[in-house]
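re the bet — no i am not wrong, look at it urself. input seq straight from the record:
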Amino acid sequence: MVEERVQKILARAGFGSRRNCEDLITSGRVKVNGKIVVLGQKADAQSDRITVDGKALPDEILLRYIAYNKPRFVLCDKTNPGDDRRTIFNMVEGAADLAVIGRLDYESEGLVILTNDGELLNHLTHPRYRHEKEYRVLVASRPDLKQLEVWRRGVVLEDGHRTSPASVTVESNAGKGTWLRVVLKEGHKRQIRETAKLTGLFVVKLIRTRIATQKLGNLKSGEYRTLTSEEVEKLKGVVNSPQKEIRKPARKTVPAKGTKRTDSKRKSD
């Protein structure tokens, strides 16, 4: 008999991220052997009867993994009625029940991964695991050494969050501007744009080219494809690595005056 937290079982069964599964539990929609589950409760997926909205978990679920090159002006969120903006979920066929790994803001573009694999989603999005994300960033001017060093060391954003050290290198000049290669191990909301602004730079274009081991490759803007089994195994290999989790000391953030704390669990770059 192997017991696991129920939210972990639900995530593995394709019910979304751990957080989404926790929401199912706290709303009273999950039962084990006919009794409503409480958050943190454990169960054995093999011997216990686990139901969601009265329906038993499927014996086998088809896990899906899709790489998508998100264009500019496409949302990574579902919209409310009356909001006609394009979203990932109506741009990618069959994506309505999938979750997003690597949310990007409205103006940014590049690689995101759509999946119903809750375990992979948790490990590639939770900040404690610090998986790399790589970007090409076009700024409007030529950064000097001081600006690059400030960005590399980290800055305090307007909401009080101090960014972790980042890899920032110059790729090439583009007219009066410069292409930078930026590698992060975190994903605070609009982090690259806000960091650039605080260092005196302006982001013209932001493209994500990699999430952990998965590269954007030759996907054109707006195109998507199913990941190969080899690509999925590489991503899971990163997740299962003994070095996957790096715990950082708790760090206090001080909101700027007149601002409210933001939900740190909802992040985009």
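see?? The mean pLDDT is 88. told u. also Helices lie at 6-12, 18-26, 88-91, 118-125, 145-153, 191-198, 229-239. so pay up
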